[in-house]
Amino acid sequence: MTTDAIHSQTTATADFSVGLASIEDIDGILAVQEANQPEHGGRLSARFTREWFAQAVQNQWLLVARSGTAVVGYVAFTSQQAQSQIPLIQAMLSAYPNPAAYLHGPICVAQDFRRRGVASALFSAQRAHRQQAPVMSFIREDNQPSRQAHIAMGLREVEMFTFGSTRFVIVTG
Ligand SMILES: CC(C)(COP(=O)(O)OP(=O)(O)OC[C@H]1O[C@@H](n2cnc3c(N)ncnc32)[C@H](O)[C@@H]1OP(=O)(O)O)[C@@H](O)C(=O)NCCC(=O)NCCS
User: Fold this and answer.
1) What is the CA(145)–ligand 1 centre distance, in A?
2) DSSP assigned state of 117
3) How many CB atoms lie within 10 A of CB 62?
4) Probe residue for ligand 1, chosen from 71, 88, 109, 169 as the CB with the greatest number of ligand atoms within 8 Å
């Protein structure tokens, strides 16, 4: 799907809109990501680099929610192949092989914009961009807000796995 096509599906509400990320969004994405790292009280499981996000922009693997020019949320999505060298992804795929599915995540919304439907809007734009293809992801077992949000988005919890000392739940849809 082209950039024009995704923009024709842009979701606009009173205070945010969703569309494909551009290079100009990366500073804002990194700021939202940083605020949600465990050392800042957040629940993200990994930290992606500026270069990774730039590549995701180029591949059209990244959607953002913007309020004005500020990034208030983002979601990445890739093929399995693109992340198959990452041990945590390997652990998920060996616990629940699902070759038809693309990988959803990370998804993250700025604290002040939570419970306004930003994650739901990002996810539905992503699924439209992927033409409703099968999707899978993992969530830390103790991340109840994210588990609830993913169930609300229509995904189901299908398997658990352990990586290091952390338990994760696999969701698919
Ligand atoms: C998980 C996260 C992405 C949800 O984003 P969000 O924009 O607040 O979610 P939405 O507003 O779209 O919520 C949709 C539904 O999910 C559920 N939900 C979302 N947050 C919830 C929470 N804290 N507790 C319970 N249910 C929740 C609700 O059913 C909600 O619908 P409602 O508000 O009408 O009741 C957000 O909390 C976040 O960024 N957390 C930190 C980073 C993170 O954990 N990312 C996921 C890693 S797997």
Assistant:
1) 5
2) S
3) 25
4) 109
Closest CA to 46 of 55, 56, 33: 33
Question: For residue 68, what pLDDT band results from cuts at 50, 70 and 90?
Answer: very high
Q: What is the pLDDT of residues 18-34, one digit of tens each?
A: 999 999 999 999 999 99
Q: What is the mean pLDDT of residues 56-79?
A: 97
Residues touching ligand 1 (Cβ under 6 Å) are 36, 42-44, 105-109, 114-120, 139, 143, 145-146, 148-149, 152
Which residue in 40, 32, 36, 45 sits closest to 142, CA to CA? 45
The domains of the chain, with CATH numbers, are 3-172 (3.40.630.30)
Model pLDDT for residues 92-124, shown as the tens digit of each residue: 999 999 999 999 999 999 999 999 999 999 999
Provide the whole-model pTM.
0.93
